[in-house]
Amino acid sequence: MTAHSTRIAEVAPRHAAPDTLADPALRAFFKLAEHWKLRIADQRRLLGDPPESTFYKWKRQQGGALGRDTLERISYLLGIWKSLQILFPDPAQADAWLHKPNTAPLFGGHSALERMLSGNVADLYVVRQYLDAQRG
Fold first, then answer.
1. How sure is the predictor about 4, in pLDDT bands with cuts at 50, 70 and 90?
2. 6-61 tens-digit pLDDT
3. Collapsed DSSP state (helix, strand, coil) of residue 109
4. Which of 1, 8, 55, 124 has the fewest C-beta atoms under 10 angstroms from its C-beta?
5. Number of other residues whose CB lies within 10 A of the CB of residue 112
6. By three-state DSSP, how is residue 101 classified?
């Protein structure tokens, strides 16, 4: 694991009770958002469009109460990040992949991030599934 991947993995435990996942999940998400250079609007969209006040509270405190949908979204995003780290040994290339146009039929010439920003949790799942299939 590279130093880049270790920093994000350190804040996201593998197995924990759902009520203890919120703080490490949010810390991992905001690290991920930083590496992926996500705009605030994109971060909110990926988290399921929480109210602005809630989002900024999460960002400021790196913790808070999360619903099941938000935890599921963060889980998919961390899975996407992990797959990219495996597929692209260069962290910069892994982080940039999301933003690049993709000719795979799933993306129709758009970037994976554009697909993920549809707002549907299913699109996060589809991108993760695609990357898992690419890993073999």
1. low
2. 455 544 445 554 567 889 999 999 999 999 999 999 999 999 999 999 999 999 98
3. coil
4. 1
5. 25
6. strand
Give the separation between CA 73 and CA 123, rounded to whole angstroms.
10
In the DSSP assignment, the letter for residue 1 is -
The answer to whether 104 touches 130, Cβ cutoff 8 Å, is yes
Contact 80, 131 (CB under 8 A): yes
**Cα–Cα distance, 98 to 101 (Å, whole number):** 8
Backbone φ and ψ of 90, nearest 5°: -85, 115
3 state SS of 110: coil
pLDDT band at 2 (very low <50, low <70, confident <90, very high): low
Q: How many helices (H) and strands (E) does the chain have?
A: 8, 0
At 111, is the secondary structure helix, strand, or coil? strand
Q: d(Cα 80, Cα 98) in Å, to the nearest integer?
A: 10
The Cα 52–Cα 136 span in angstroms is 39
Q: Where are the domains of the chain?
A: 3-135
CA 63 to chain centre: 16
